[in-house]
Amino acid sequence: MPLSVAHTLSRWSIQVSSFSGTAAGFALSPHGRLLAYEASTPDGKSVLWVRPIDFLQPQPLRGTDGATDPFWSPDSRFIAFFAGGKLKKIEPSGDPPFTIGDASDGRGGTWNRDGDILLTPAVNTALFRVSSSGGPLIPVTTLDPSKNETTQRWPYFLPDGHYFLYFTGSVFSPREILTNSDLLGSLDSKERKLLLHSHTNAIYASGHILFMRQFTLMAQPFDTTSLQLTGDAVPIADPVQEGRSVAKGVFSASKNGLLTYVEGASGADWQLEWFDRDGKEMGAVPGADAYAGVRISPDGKRLAYDLARPQDRTFIWLGFGTGKPLSSVVTRRPPDYLHLLSQRKVWSLSEGF
Q1: What is the domain partition of the chain in residue ranges?
Q2: Which residues, other chains included, contact 6 with Cβ-Cβ below 8 Å and sequence gap of 6+?
Q3: Which CATH architecture has domain 16-261?
Q4: Cα–Cα distance between 210 and 196 in angstroms, integer?
Q5: DSSP string covering 136-158, please?
Q6: Is-above-0.85 flag for pTM?
Q7: What is the arithmetic mean of pLDDT over 278-299?
Q8: pLDDT tens, 208-235?
Q9: Is 170 in contact with 148 (CB distance < 8 Å)?
Q10: What is the pLDDT of residues 206-215, one digit of tens each?
Q11: Using CA atoms, how far apart are residues 353 and 42, in angstroms rounded to an integer?
């Protein structure tokens, strides 16, 4: 879907249930002819798939087991991705992947025409730079302690290959709201500039900054010479899914203005249900919500989970399989609110949680 007012809308579908990963990671190639995305094979492996826009049958790429968050080289020749604690690249033709550098738990990358890759190698880091030919990671940005920043992620190069967009997340005080922003940075300077407040990433396409506002994809005019927003934001797609726990909108755009996104409001209709070992339903948590990071107590009678709502600071709740009311046990998000608690929740035999 081109971003100009006059456009021709083309639609195709990929079975969403086959997507894997926390934000159904996918990336449209810069020339707009190929779509790379994470999905499961029939035997349950999560790998990268590539599908030409004008061809219905996707192809899995060998050697990409466990791949997440793909992004393309500017000439559309390579796909970079994270897997096995490394940043790798592969050609869609199917040659074996090449390891670029270390990335224990990557949160996005972007590639410029000079062969520089900007990436977030782990959940709680700033941005680093590495050559697409391989080598050590070099720090580019730093987390700002004065703002209690806990992450910088989802970088995206502007056309000049020096300036870039990136998302930053902060928690100020237990009594204050979570503040997230999309910033403008440069490879040549430590200075940074606030572009807009958003709870997910932002990208550049066809003279616009694209970002999420709740489940609506917005476009706001942006001048790449003055590096200024030059008009009001307007909605271009609604509803669009987002990976709430990783702060990423499920959308991508090519250089020629083609836009792809996954339709729907993430997590709005998830229902938690209890089953015994024989598959018999025993009960359900009342209501549907944005559940994440579920952990069952040792006695099998209670569960703890996150409610991944951008506007809600409460992040751990207790529920019961018998339909009892929910109760919160923690009332603010942790310094790294982005999906860490779902990995660290543990039950104590003496205290119950």
Answers
A1: 16-261, 273-344
A2: none
A3: 6 Propeller (2.120)
A4: 11
A5: --EE-----GGGTEEEEEEEEE-
A6: no
A7: 71
A8: 999 999 889 999 999 999 999 999 999 9
A9: yes
A10: 999 999 998 8
A11: 37
